[in-house]
């Protein structure tokens, strides 16, 4: 407890949020095992890779979708990360993925070619 109205949380180092919160935001932990005995245990997320600069990386498992913003023509891909649930999927810009996983982009583009009007111009 920082004071009567605030508590300091112990958070993993990779979480870049302020650890002090108002006590009105806190609730006692209840695991729910007694209420839901048949529920499968949650999968433990894999540990992220953290480089020397402190940036966090997860391994890309698959490219699921592509979207092109109509006005800016910016291309982003929906990425599934290894060991993460579907709600953790993110749209990531094409340039970033071409640096990190060009083989997955090429594989996706081969399976789902762009129409002639939406081809990327060099």
From TrEMBL:
PROSITE patterns: CHROMO_2. Signal peptide: none annotated. Residues 58-120 form the Chromo domain. SMART domains: CHROMO. Pfam families: Chromo (PF00385). InterPro entries: Chromo-like_dom_sf (IPR016197), Chromo/chromo_shadow_dom (IPR000953), Chromo_domain (IPR023780). CDD domains: CD_CSD. This is Chromo domain-containing protein.
């Amino acid at each position: 407890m920082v004071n009567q109205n605030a508590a300091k949380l112990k958070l993993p180092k990779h979480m870049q949020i302020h650890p002090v919160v108002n006590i009105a935001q806190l609730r006692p932990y209840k695991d729910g095992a007694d209420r839901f005995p048949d529920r499968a245990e949650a999968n433990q997320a894999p540990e992220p890779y953290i480089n020397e600069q402190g940036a966090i990386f997860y391994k890309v498992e698959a490219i699921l979708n592509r979207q092109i913003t109509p006005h800016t023509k910016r291309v982003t891909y929906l990425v599934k990360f290894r060991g993460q649930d579907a709600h953790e999927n993110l749209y990531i810009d094409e340039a970033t993925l071409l640096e990190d996983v060009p083989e997955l982009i090429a594989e996706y583009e081969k399976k789902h070619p762009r129409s002639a009007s939406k081809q990327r111009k060099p």
